[in-house]
Amino acid sequence: MNGVRERLAEAWVSHEPTLGFRVWKTSDVPAMSMPHTHSDVEVNYLFEGSLSYLHGGARILLEAQQLAVLWGGIPHRTLPPGLKGWGIWMSIPLTWVLQWNLRPELVERLLTGDVLIASRDDTDMSLLQRWYEDYVSREPRRQRALALEVEARFIRVSLALEPAADQSRLPRQAAIGPQGKVNLVTDFLARNYLEQLTIKMVAAAADVHPNYLMRLFKQHMLVSVWEYVTRLRLAHAQRLLLTTDSNIAAIAFQSGFGSLGSLYRAFAKYAPGSRPLDYRRLIQADLDQGETRGINRQEFL
């Protein structure tokens, strides 16, 4: 009976915009009233207490000093009594994770709804605390170190995974009802946003008519299919602007835009007040001046 209630609860999902790259502390938070989704990857680490999730139909228990990684594109919520204790949470743009060239099986498991529980590591407690301090320091060099350390920790997670605490998974939510169709599409887009897509290709991933998909996606995600794709591509481009010396035209094509003009239009719409070259120069100026407008700027949202 509880499983039926949980599946019914999953029918009502709060869809949120991308959180961007963030690190924050959380403590004594009540259980979520409904599942939610977002396009980022989450990292959760408890210093004290425990927390139960419902993630894509599976119950997952996170205990103190365990590091959990999940993709927010799968409907998920915390279960009663919520978080009793405290921890550090992170959100990382999915496009960053996809660019890290991790083991394919790690990415596959994330995108198909697994919560990955890393093997306990005695250094995680001090590492997560330092990441939080780096993030709030407003010092670009520390935040650059933070980004590199997060990437390195993900590589280690891919080398030593433990199965989730509860292996009795319910059928994957992506196969159930209209919400399931949307889940299939967001999964497909996460894997293929760099390709030159058509609405027919996207609709085929969920075996629905293109017109129905466009209505359904907008209803559930509150943005159109193409806005969702554009935001994924923009996050990819911003990462390349931060981490490479590639010219703007090359970055436009490497990010799936297909033209320089499309990249500029995406910046104008979703990162108003900056153009790609201005964005790169601003980051470099921050490094030179010791200020921060870098990886935690609103343009990442």
Q: Indicate the radius of gyration in whole angstroms.
A: 19 Å
Which structural category fits the helices and strands?
alpha+beta
Stretches where pLDDT is under 50 for at least 5 consecutive residues are 1-12, 163-175, 286-301
Determine the fraction of residues in helical runs and give it as a percent range: 40-55%
Number of helices: 12
Largest sheet: 8 strands, antiparallel
Number of strands: 10
Overall shape: it is globular
Report, as a whole number of angstroms, the end-to-end distance: 39 Å
Can you name the CATH architecture of the largest domain?
Sandwich
The CATH superfamily of the largest domain is identified as Regulatory protein AraC
Residue fraction in strands: 15-25%
CATH class of the largest domain: Mainly Beta
CATH topology of the largest domain: Jelly Rolls
Mean pLDDT: 79
**Order of helical and strand elements:** HEEEEEEEEHHEHHEHHHHHHH
- Domains (count): 3
General description of the model:
This protein has 301 residues and is α+β, with helices and mostly antiparallel strands. It folds into three domains: 161 residues, Jelly Rolls (Sandwich), CATH 2.60.120; 48 residues; 73 residues, Homeodomain-like (Arc Repressor Mutant, subunit A), CATH 1.10.10.60. It has twelve helices and ten strands. The strands form two sheets. Strands 2, 4, 5, 6, 7, 8, 9 and 10 form an eight-stranded antiparallel beta sheet that branches. A two-stranded parallel sheet has the order 1-3. Helix 6 packs across helix 8. The radius of gyration is 19 Å and the shape is globular. The chain starts with a helix and ends in a 12-residue tail after the last helix. The N terminus and C terminus are likely disordered.
